[in-house]
Design brief:
The structure is a single chain. It contains 15 helices and 15 strands. The chain is an alpha+beta fold. The chain folds into two domains: 178 residues, no CATH class; 129 residues, no CATH class. Strands 1, 2, 3, 4, 5, 6, 11, 12, 13, 14 and 15 form an eleven-stranded mixed beta sheet that branches. Strand 13 and strand 14 form a beta hairpin.
C-alpha cells in the first residue's frame, strides 16, 4: 500500500511550508497505523528512529497549518463520498487522564466508563454514507472551571478565544465548518444529551438541516397545538394588559413524551415491528409507534411540528427510546428509524480510532498538540476507512444485508425491514 499511502498524504502537502516538518506527518500517521501496542509520541518516535522530543515539537511547537489539514480532509470526503443518503452524527467521547495538566482535564462524566472520572471530553462530527464512515472533526470541550482560570489556560496554551461552550454549541460549530467546506448532510442525528436542548434543534432547523435525534422522556410537546390569541386582555378591564401573542386561556400544558403514550391516538396504535440490523449478539428488532407533535418555540408558543417515534426493544420491552425529527411530513417511518439507529457508526469510529489508531493516547500538556493530534488521528482513520472500503469492493457481496426499500434506504449494511410474524 506504499504508493496509495504516499498519494494520500500528498493531499496535505501544502499544509507545511518546510519539507522536514512535512516528513513528520508520515512518521506520525505510520505510527498510528502500525501494530505498536502503545501509540503515544514516544513509542511512535522510537519505532521510527526519531528523537521523541522532535515529534513532540512537531505536535506542539513547529509551524504548520492544522486548520488547513482539517479543511482538506473534509474536502477529500466531500469529493469522494458525496451523494444522497448522507448522515452526520454529532457525539462526544471521553479519555481518562492522570494529573491536572492535560488541557480540559477535570473530574467529569465519562460516558465511555458510565461514571465520573478524571478525563477530557472531545466533541466530534462523524460522516456516514452507505458502508463508509469516518470522523470529520473534533474539538475539546473546555469546562467552566478552566474558562474561569485563564492563567491555567495560558499555561496549557489555550487561546483566550477558546472559552466554555456547551457541547451542543460545539456540535453546531463542527456542523457549520463541514458545511462551509462543501459537505452536505441529508440528515443529522444525535443522542438525548443534545436532544434535550431545544436551542440546538431550533438552530439546525434554521439552517434547513433535517435531523432525527433521540430525546429524553422528559421532552415536552403537544399532540394538538393550543390556540394562540393576539388580542390584548385586561382582567376585569383593569390593570396592565397581557402581552400578545399568547396561549388562549385554558390551553392545555405540554406533556412529557412518555406520558403521550397514554393518549388513545398512541395507546390504541398497534406497535409496528422492524428488524433494524444484525448486531454482535444477534438481530436487533424494535417495535415502533409514530405520530406528529408540536413543540414550544423560544417564546413558549406552539412552534415546529415534528415527527415523534417511540421505539421499544422487543427483547427488553422496558427499554424505550424517543426520537423526534423535523423531516418532511411524508418521510417514511423506515427512513426515520434508519437515521435514528445510525449512531453506532460514530461509536464504531471511536472504538476503532482508540483501539487501532491511538486517539485516546495523547500525553501532552499543550492545547495545540491535542488539537493537532485530533486532526491527524482523523486523517489516519480516513486512510484506514478508504483502504477498508477498497478491499471490501473486491470481496463478494454475499455478506451484505439486502437493501429493503430501494432508493429510500441509505445503503448496504443499513437496510431496515419490517419484521414479519411473531417470532
Amino acid at each position: 500500500m506504499e504508493a496509495e499511502f504516499t498519494a494520500f498524504l500528498d493531499h496535505f502537502f501544502d499544509c507545511f511550508s518546510r519539507k522536514d516538518t512535512r516528513a513528520h506527518l508520515g512518521v506520525y500517521v505510520r505510527g498510528q497505523l502500525s501494530d505498536l501496542p502503545e501509540k503515544s509520541v514516544e513509542p511512535i518516535a522510537l519505532e521510527a528512529g526519531v528523537a521523541p522530543r522532535t515529534l513532540q515539537e512537531f505536535l506542539s511547537q513547529l509551524k504548520w497549518d492544522e486548520d488547513r489539514m482539517r479543511d482538506r480532509l473534509q474536502h477529500v470526503v466531500a469529493a469522494e463520498h458525496a451523494g444522497p443518503h448522507t448522515i452526520g452524527i454529532i457525539d462526544e467521547t471521553s479519555d481518562v487522564k492522570k494529573g491536572d495538566k492535560t488541557p480540559g482535564v477535570q473530574k467529569q462524566w465519562s460516558g465511555r466508563l458510565g461514571k465520573t472520572e478524571n478525563c477530557i471530553v472531545t466533541v466530534h462530527l462523524c460522516f456516514a454514507r452507505g458502508d463508509f464512515h469516518c470522523l470529520l472533526d473534533g474539538e475539546l470541550y473546555l469546562p467552566e472551571s478552566w474558562d474561569t482560570d485563564r492563567d491555567r489556560c495560558r499555561e496549557a496554551g489555550i487561546p483566550d478565544s477558546l472559552v466554555y461552550r456547551p457541547k451542543w454549541q460545539i456540535g453546531l460549530e463542527l456542523h457549520q465548518r463541514a458545511v462551509d467546506n462543501g459537505l452536505f448532510f441529508e440528515w443529522i442525528t444525535f443522542d438525548e444529551g443534545y436532544g434535550s436542548k431545544p436551542e440546538f434543534m431550533r438552530e439546525l432547523s434554521s439552517r434547513k438541516q433535517n435531523y432525527v435525534g433521540e430525546v429524553p422522556r422528559s421532552f415536552a410537546a403537544w399532540l394538538d397545538p393550543p390556540r394562540v390569541v393576539n388580542r390584548r386582555y385586561r382582567r376585569n378591564g383593569k390593570g396592565r394588559s397581557r402581552k400578545v401573542p399568547r396561549l388562549a386561556c385554558g390551553s392545555p400544558p405540554t406533556r412529557r413524551v412518555d406520558e403521550l403514550l397514554d393518549d388513545e391516538r398512541l395507546s390504541e396504535q398497534p406497535w409496528k415491528r422492524f428488524h433494524v440490523k444484525d448486531g454482535e449478539k444477534g438481530p436487533m428488532v424494535w417495535e415502533c409507534k409514530h405520530t406528529m407533535i408540536t413543540i414550544k418555540d423560544a417564546q413558549g408558543l406552539p412552534g415546529q411540528r415534528l415527527h415523534l417515534v417511540v421505539a421499544r426493544n422487543v427483547l427488553e420491552p422496558d427499554e424505550l427510546k424517543f426520537f423526534v425529527s423535523n423531516g418532511p411530513m411524508e418521510t417514511r417511518l423506515e427512513t426515520l428509524l434508519l437515521v435514528a439507529f445510525s449512531r453506532w457508526r460514530v461509536e464504531r469510529c471511536f472504538e476503532d480510532d482508540k483501539s487501532e489508531i491511538g486517539l485516546d493516547q495523547y500525553e501532552g500538556r499543550r492545547y495545540l498538540g491535542l488539537k493537532r493530534h485530533l486532526i491527524i488521528s482523523a486523517v489516519s482513520y480516513l486512510f484506514l476507512a478508504r483502504v477498508r472500503q477498497h478491499w471490501a469492493k473486491k470481496k463478494s457481496g454475499a455478506h451484505r444485508l439486502p437493501i429493503a426499500y430501494g432508493d429510500d434506504c441509505l445503503g448496504p449494511l443499513m437496510g431496515i425491514v419490517v419484521a414479519g410474524g411473531a417470532g
